[in-house]
Structures are given as structure tokens and as C-alpha cells.
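Weekly structure sync, notes
Attendees: PL (lead), two postdocs, one rotation student
Agenda item 3: pending single-chain targets
PL asked that the sequence for the first pending target be pasted directly into the notes so everyone works from the same version. It is reproduced below exactly as submitted, 274 residues in total.
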Amino acid sequence: MLFIRLITLVFFINLISCQSQKLGNKSKHISIEFEALALDKNVRGSILIYDLNNKTYYSNDYDWAKSGRIPASTFKIPHSLIALELGITKNEASVFRWDGEKRAYKLWQQDLTFKQAFHYSCVPCYQEIARKVGTRDMNTFMKEFNYGTMDIHNNNIDEFWLVGESKINQYEQIDFLKRLYLSHLPISMRTDQLFKQLFIVKQTTDYILRAKTGLAVKNGNYNTWYVGYIEKAQNVYFFATNISPKGSEHKSLVKKRKGITIKAMEQLHFLSRS
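Predicted structure, written out during the meeting:
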């Protein structure tokens, strides 16, 4: 038994050593099979996690993580920063008035504060923001933010993050979030602080979770996002999850994207198991 345990330990040490590689930015890459994703036979995709203090990436599929996909509602992160920076929204209490028209979700059929619009992922609210920002300023911000590759022109200003050729990969999502966390984006300190407060999903005595979901459909193919970061015990763990259904069933993806990500964090002991 002792011999088997020693062989197993040597195997895992060698596995990590072989799969960890020094890159130009001196970050390590460790391949890992995330249990929650591997055991789910109905979904496929990649979880990418970055440990800031240890400069280490973890993923089950680095090739998937390098592939660009439309950002969908994860774009509400830079979108919100732009709205605050330009004064289109003053703070999280700014109100979007419902025009009385039927919308895709009942939650959207009411007046919403900026904070509610963000967390309810209100597409009409952010389309209103995009039209006020305009094509020129939106492109300028995307260049300054270095946010993926957004395809923005006059005819798609209020939907380029939902349909079309815009794309961002999981590495780029984490890079943007890291610069946001470190306050390295070209925005005012006021915008930075207001958004980081609005961005909070959950706050406990142990950690703070900031995150955003996203769902897109392109050529009948569904992909879902869950991106953000967790601040815990003097460290920060960034994550960008992108998963798709293996078959035609896609409704469960909405719930699974968060659960799979949190379980991956627990598997790495970045969060305590619930």
C-alpha cells in the first residue's frame, strides 16, 4: 500500500512538473481535470482560473480557453465602466425607466436601477447605454481597455456584444478583470470604486465574489460564460468559464455555469466546500 501511494505521489508531482510551463509573463500553467465538469455528460468546455499571488493558471482545456467567443452579457462589465465614466449613469441608483413594452423577461418589465439592470442582465437597458455612447467612443474605449476584438459599427452599436463577429477568449477575460482589480484601467478612481461596489455578487466574512454571467447563441450553437474574481485571505482568484451543451439541451447551462465554477474553486481549495 505504501509503495502504491509513493508511486501515485511521484506520478502527480511529475504530472504537474510536465504540465507547468514558464511563459513570457512568468505565469505557470497547470492542467487539471475539474471533477464537476468532467462528471457532467451533457456539457463541454473550459474553466480557466488564475491565482494572482502564485501567478498560476489552472484549466482543463487551454485550447478551448484560447478560442475567442462573443462576450454576450459579460460585456456589461466594460459597458458599465463606460456608462459611469461618461456620466450616462451617475451611480448604482440611477434609474432606467420601463417604456411599457413587453420584454423577454418579466424582471425587465419595470423601472430598474443601474445595479438591478446589471445583475438582472437587462439587455434593453444596456442597448440604451450603447446608443448614447455611440460608435466612435465605444471603439475608443475598446482600444484603451484592450478588451478582446469587438466588431463595432453604426449598424450594430446596440447589439455587437450579442451577435456578430465580436469575440474575446478566456485569457483576455481574465487579463481585463486583473487590470480592473488592480485599478490599471484608464478610468477615474470614482468610476473604479463605484463599479467595484456594484459588481459584488456575494460578500461573506471569508470572501468577496464579483461575477457576471453571459449567454450567446451563434448559428444555433449555445455558449455560456461565468467570469469574475474572488478576493480571499490576501489573495485573488480570477476565473473565466465557458461551456456549451454536448447535445441540443441548453436550458440547464444557465444554472450549471456558476455551480461548475464554484466547485472548481473548491477542488483547488480556493474556497471551502459548501
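Discussion points:
- The first helix runs from residue 2 to 19.
- Residues 22-267 form a domain with the Beta-lactamase fold (CATH 3.40.710.10).
Action: rotation student to compare against the earlier draft before next sync.
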